[in-house]
Structure formats: C-alpha cells, structure tokens
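Shall we go through a protein fold together, starting from nothing but its sequence? Label the sequence line and the structure token line clearly, so we can match residues to local backbone shapes. Would you write everything just below, so we can both look at the same thing?
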Amino acid sequence: MTGKSPITQRTARHGSHKLCKFDLSDLEWTNMIPECPTYHPSEHEFEHPLVYLQKIAHEASKYGICKIVSPIAASNPAAFVLMKEKKNFKFETNVQPLRLSKWNEKDIITFSMRGRKYTYHDFEVLANKAFFSRFHSSRDLPSSYVEKEFWHEMAQGEKGTVEYGVNVEGSAFSCDPNDRLGTSKWNLKNFSQLPQSLIRLVDREIPGITDPMLYIGMLFSMFAWHVEDHYLYSINYHHSGANKTWYGVPGYAASQFEKTVLQHVYCNKIITKHGEDGAFKFLAQKTTMFPPNVMLQHDVAVYKAVQKPGEFIITFPRAYHAGFSHVNFANGDWFPLGAAASRRYTHLKMMPLIPYEELLCKEAMLVFKSSRVRSSKNKPEDTTSYQAIMLPFMHLMQSYKTSLLRLNSSRKLHSSSNTTGSQICSLCYRDCYVAYLLCKYCFSHPICLFHDIAPQTCLCGRDYTIFKRNDIFALEEAAKSFQQGKECVDKFSLSSIFSCNINDCIKVPEREKSVRGTSFLGVASKPKTKVADSTKHSDERNKSTTKHWRNNGLPSVRGAERPGIIYNLRKRKSKLI
C-alpha cells in the first residue's frame, strides 16, 4: 500500500456484504500486528550479503519476514534509470479489483485483466492523479492511516480498480560503474549468482528466480497471500516512492495458516483437494487477498513491515506473505524445506520450477570435494548448512538404491548412461536427476522410480530403459563419505544394478513415507496420504507437460503449466525485483 503520491518501484519470485466473513467495521486491529525486526548492517557486513543473511537468519526467520536498511544509497534514482538508461522503456499493467472476494463458486477474484502500456512518466502522472483524487493532497501521509484506508476500501469497495506493472523484465539498479549500490553485491541482477547461492547451480534462465523482475505500483497496488515457489527465500528492494506495507507469517506457522484459510476464507466448493493441500494449491494461484486480522482471530502468528525507499525485505522459507514483490535465492540450509516442497509438488502433481534433486546433488558434490581438501580444523561437518545438505542427499541416494533393488527383482531392463540434466516424470512431475525410466527410441514420457505402479512399456510399444548418471560412482562415493561415523546402510551399489524389471515396481516412499524410519529426502514427518499413480498414459497431457529437459532445459517459461492451474512464470506475482 502506498502512502504518498509518487509511483513506486520495487525490484525483486466489498462491498459491505463482506462483513459477514471479514469483519472490518473496526480497523484498530491494524495497530495490534507487531512489527518484524529491522537490521542495520555496517558497510563491512554489507559486503557479503548471504553471509550476513545467514548470520541473522536464526533470529529473523522466527518472524517470517525482516527488514534490512542499506548503509549505502544509489547514486542514480530509479526514475533516471528507467527513463534515461533504459531507452524506450515501456511496461504493461494488470488491473486489480479493489475489493474482497467471498471465495465461493460465484465470486472468485483474479488479477488477469490486462491494462495499458505506459512509459514511466505516463504512469507517474496516473499514479499522482489517483492519489490526489482520494486524499486531496500530495504530501506524505502516515503509513498507519493509509493502511486503514486500504482495508476500508477493500471492505466497502465494489467496482474500484488499481493498475500494477507486474513481472517487468529487468530492474531499476543502475549500470553506472560509479553507482555504489549498483556495483555492490546487493544489486539483485547479480544476487542469484553469488558464490554462496544455490541458485547459481541452475543452468537455465528462470525469470524471477535466476533473474530479477521489476514491479511498478500506485496507490493500493497489491499482491496476494502466497508462499514462494519451492519454499525459497525472497528479497525485495524498494527503489523509490511511498512506503509499502508487508504482512508475513513465519514458516513454522505455515500449516496453521493454511488450515485457517481453508476453514475461514475459502468455500469448500471451490477447493479441488481436501485439507491443507487444497488451500495450498489454491493459494498458489496468487489471487487470495484477505485482511490479516483473520490470522489474529485464530491465533496464527503474523507480523508487519513498513518498507521505505532504500530498504530490503527478506522473506524466509515457507513464510506466507502479502505485499509487494521480489527475487528468489537459497542458502545451504534451505535443502530440508526444499525437500518438503518437492514432495508436496509431487503429491499435488504441480510442475516444479527448479530441479531440486539436481541442485542437491551438485551442491553435495561441491561440499564433498571441498571437505577432502580442508584441514581437520576446518571440516564442515558441524555447520548447519553441511548437515542440511548431507542428510537429504544421503536419504536421496538410499531411496534410489531401494528403488533399483526392487526393480532388479523383476524383469530385466536395459541400462544406459545419462549425460544430460534432469527429467520431469510424466506421471507425477517429480524432477529426476540420478536415475529415471525412459524409452531410448522415442525419448518421451520419462518416469521416476518412485511409483507403486508404472507401465511396463512406453507408448511406442518398446520397453523402458533405466537411465543413470554417468557420474553415479562419484555420487556413491560422496554418499559413503557422508555416512562415516553414522548408523546407516551398508553400501551404495547403485552403479552395479543394471538388470531391473518393472513388474515388481517400486513401493518406495509414499511421498512422505520414510526409508528405514526417516522421511523421504531427509525431512522427518508423519506419512499423510498415499498417492495412487495411474498406470495409464494420457497422450494429450504428456504432450503438454512432459517435454523432457534433455534438449530444452527446464520447462519453458511460457509452457510450464500445472494441471488445473493457469501457470505462466512471466505472470507470477511473486517473482520480481
């Protein structure tokens, strides 16, 4: 929400009939939401972003979001960058309804209506006019006052709209070599490639994850409640304009948040999945906006941040938030949550945006190689990041061993080396890096090794082949090394298992079920739902969703479609700078 007339740039992944569901007759609850912590790093601390973020993460993550005040300023303002450095800069807006939805089958809000194309100057004129017509003033207003006005309008509004420039490619960080912020490591254009960032291992461009995006807003521009894809971190920088109001729910309260939304926001008739998964899948569409007092009323932790120009907002893994947009990153300690997100995506048959398994294996190999050359005094075994990488990797390799052994007890299949990257399972959309089943003739319809039932042959009529990484020996060696000093399985002999039969097919981790008492991919939790995987292949579905990554990398930005969800990465509200 905006508290003064200039338009806002961020770089960064109703009517009275509503009162029966969202009681906003008394807006004093806005004063009851505690603020998240604010950090003021020194210039020395500011030199290493991910090191600093890891330093504050233990405390700050308890709030879901935090604010960081930059000790250095940009020499060139965003307006200069967008009008002078970027020649012929124009962007298209989305039109957002300024009201609350009933969230039943007759009233579901979307943010898909397209607006006009604007130059930066033209949109600035529009934003100033909108502010003045509402407040009859061009001066700054208290953020608390604007916050109340926003929720009052959302409760009473019927036909009002605002425009929001979303998912605009690029950023407003200056390219000037004399601009201190632009040349710093906090320039979000370079953030994903920092040495400690796991996203640097993604060798494909994914807008909003590997590359930042720009959002340009006006008074009451908003984005809905959501959690970042794959439970990633996100970072947002506020270049200029009015203050922004953020709300955040800590990751530890995510399940409670989903239950509350399911019970007190959504009508059951619009939910296609039962329980928290139903809420998660609907929230993933990023169209659900409701007042945070719903969380207060049901004892769900919620915090607030008022972001001023020159400040960063960090959202932590699995922290639901609403406000204004951002870019993603991940530290080593993200892997356990990444594993949980991967399981959930698979359970709901949602297309992944990043290849979790590939990132885990690549980072594990880097840790393994570095640990062999370190002195005994500097071994990484005691670090949180090391444990967060090692345990999911060990469980991943054990899961593959178990699956291949079960395949081996049935009809023999040919084996082949895989020299490419990850594949997407045509049944559950799981990303597969270590091994998978694939027809070596048509190279279509890959299948992961973690299904109770799977077809024996490809649609073309030929038997499947087991494709394994050509560096599987190195992966085994790393897994064995990580096991030393721990109670674990005897040997990893994946590379020697070449004859497998698919008839006995794999009764491995039921998504959240464990191998030897530990949950799949190393995150401990009780098994919830066994996923029944169909043995039938749908030609139509596979044509649109199972294009493998052999030639094209990750699913196309324009073609990454999740079943039941209109899914286009360039239209995602959460991916930006």
